[in-house]
Amino acid sequence: MSDVLKVKRLQFSEGVSMIVGTNIGAGILSLSFAARKAGYLPLLFWLVLVGILTTITMLYVAEATLRTKEHEQLSGLSKRYVGGVGSWIMFASVAVNSIGALIAYMSGSGDLMHSLFGIDKKLGSILFFIPAAGVLWFGLKAIGRGEKFVTAAMIILLLVLIVATFLTPQTDFSHIFEGDWVYMVPVFNVVVFIYCAQYIVPEMARGFAHNPKQLPKAVIAGMGTTFVLLALVPLSVISLSGLDNITQVATIGWGEALGSWAFFVANGFALFAMLTSYWGLGGSFFTNIADKFSLQVDNDMLVRAGVLVVVVVPPFFLAYSGFVSFVDALYFVGVFSGVVLSIMPIMILKGSRKKGTNKDDIWHCPNWMTSPFIYVSIIVLYCLSAVYAIASKLGYLPAGW
């Protein structure tokens, strides 16, 4: 299989930003609400455990890409090392998760623009759509640069809010010890779906073709930065408000406690977070389509435009279509897609170690990372997550959760 995607050089900071930007969506602002019964410490426990296991699955993909001469996406790697059926399953997983997320970002951006500027929600989504789709058109290098600058702005906004929270007299750090570990299970499931950057490892590998040893370092740095941000925001919100006064979206609570400026800063952060996640997931979907169907998106601008339309237009219309049943269907399929995305890297790694086309052992996962215990832990964790998500959606879980 020949490459259909050209190599575009990424800086190390751009690769790290791609992971942070993809992971840190607006969902970070609802983490505190999800932990309102369990408390901060159970949330921190899951952030550490799930973060480590997700990083390991990403490093499996990193090793597989480094064992492959061609620059292939997840669906291409699956075809090469798992087989045709595995390739289609992986492609469906990427497609469903990406479409579901892009629908949410289209809808959420409209809500945020309305809150910030009082404009019509559809107009707000259109204004968000222009830079979101525009950067995808220009490709990997533009995504890397966009992620770097917008993620930096996003982190600055968060740090302003966090520092202001820590300096506010009503902040009480004893709140982080409140809660009940009995309610830790629902928190686990929210955290599982927060970490979502497995998709973009092959894109990063393409960007680091000039220095492939940077790939695993960038994965670890990106996931480490993600963890710090995911841990700091709930720490700030819970310390400020206490578990009994947490609002569903942290922007409201911050605005009430710190003043209207905090409301605007927090909503600005949320808008940036949606944009960076859109670039990460949309870009991955774009390149997976090109890879799966061998489309010359880097050489034929008409083909590129066609693929871009497939990626960006349906989520925009579905966000305002009122097809609630369709979105619900995406939820159920997305749950199983999440399981695929966690388990398939194990199979890809094993296949690449047997059939890898790049004989130079550039980098490989340490032995402990590929032990049966780790494999089983990943499979059990994500399968239980899927079972929980389905049971929750169908109303089979205790109301108190």
UniProtKB/TrEMBL annotation:
GO CC, one annotated term? plasma membrane
Membrane topology, as annotated: Multi-pass membrane protein
The UniProt record lists the keyword Transport: yes
State a single Gene Ontology molecular function: aromatic amino acid transmembrane transporter activity
Among InterPro entries, the record links this protein to: Amino_acid_transport_2 (IPR018227), Trp_tyr_transpt (IPR013059)
Superkingdom of origin organism: Bacteria
Per the UniProt entry, what are the Gene Ontology biological process annotations, in alphabetical order? Answer: amino acid transmembrane transport
Subcellular location per the Swiss-Prot or TrEMBL entry: Cell inner membrane
Provide the primary localization: membrane
Which Gene3D superfamilies does the record match to this protein? Answer: Amino acid/polyamine transporter I (1.20.1740.10)
Q: Which UniProt keywords apply?
A: Amino-acid transport, Cell inner membrane, Cell membrane, Membrane, Transmembrane, Transmembrane helix, Transport
Which sequence ranges are marked TM in the entry? 12-34, 40-61, 81-103, 123-140, 149-169, 181-197, 218-241, 261-281, 302-323, 329-349, 370-391
PANTHER family recorded: OS07G0662800 PROTEIN, TRYPTOPHAN OR TYROSINE TRANSPORTER PROTEIN
> What name does the UniProt record give this protein?
Tyrosine permease
Species annotation: Campylobacter geochelonis
